[in-house]
Amino acid sequence: DVKVTQSSRYLVKRTGEKVFLECVQDMDHENMFWYRQDPGLGLRLIYFSYDVKMKEKGDIPEGYSVSREKKERFSLILESASTNQTSMYLCASSLLSPYYGYTFGSGTRLTVV
Amino acid sequence: QQQVKQSPQSLIVQKGGISIINCAYENTAFDYFPWYQQFPGKGPALLIAIRPDVSEKKEGRFTISFNKSAKQFSLHIMDSQPGDSATYFCAARGGNEKLTFGTGTRLTIIP
After folding, report:
1. How many CB atoms lie within 10 A of CB B19?
2. CATH of the domain at A62
3. Given A35, A69, A92, B27, which is the most exposed site by the fewest CB atoms within 10 A?
């Protein structure tokens, strides 16, 4: 069964900490994405990557960075966590071809205290 | 800027009834319109999708209706069942593979 795996289901971090969220896919997908999900706001794109070492900003990149050193792994980094980054973070991947849906991971619920 | 507007925010439907969720978009460059279903504690999963060259797509009890001139599309769930209770997201894809999502609809099917 194909999968997108997010390393942590729940995380609690302190304000100012550097936080790493890891995502691994086993489908050989070219595209990978990080979204955050907040009630009433839906899913908002933080960053995406269409190839190794390539990245593009999404709609809300401020306070975040990403790393993609291998095709299967896409990391989201919160440089200095703040309470307004408390959210559900979803990783997704897709093929580099039109009309192909995303496969999402189960999410990481991050709480910044 | 909300490029995909979804309504209603929540919906309660009786078992066996028809659930209808609506979305509207502004960007005429969108070329792919998927719907995702999300159960609590899970990530969204692709449910059904449509391209703008067709007006309707049906898969089992799920149908997408697409109105290109009005820039609207909707999800219809026929014979709604308690197992359909979930959050549904519409989305639209631009030319760079990115999906823009609606704000979600929490659907509850009551006996």
Report:
1. 24
2. 2.60.40.10
3. A69
Cα(B38)–Cα(B44) distance, rounded to whole angstroms? Answer: 4
| B contacts of A106 (beta carbons < 8 Å) | 41-43
CB–CB of A40 and B31 under 8 A? no
Domain that holds residue A8: 4-112
Instruction: Encode pLDDT of B59-75 as tens digits.
Output: 999 999 999 999 999 99
pLDDT in tens, A27-85: 899 999 999 999 989 999 999 999 998 999 999 999 999 999 999 999 999 999 999 99
DSSP reduced 3-state for A8: coil
Number of domains composing chain A: 1
Give every CB contact of residue A53 below 8 A, 6+ residues apart in sequence: A68, A69
Residues of A in contact with B97 (CB under 8 A): 31, 48, 50, 94, 96
Q: Which structural domain, as residue segments, surrounds residue B38? A: 4-110
- Supply the CATH number for residue B60's domain: 2.60.40.10
Residue of B7, B10, B98 best to disrupt the A interface, most CBs of A under 10 A? B98
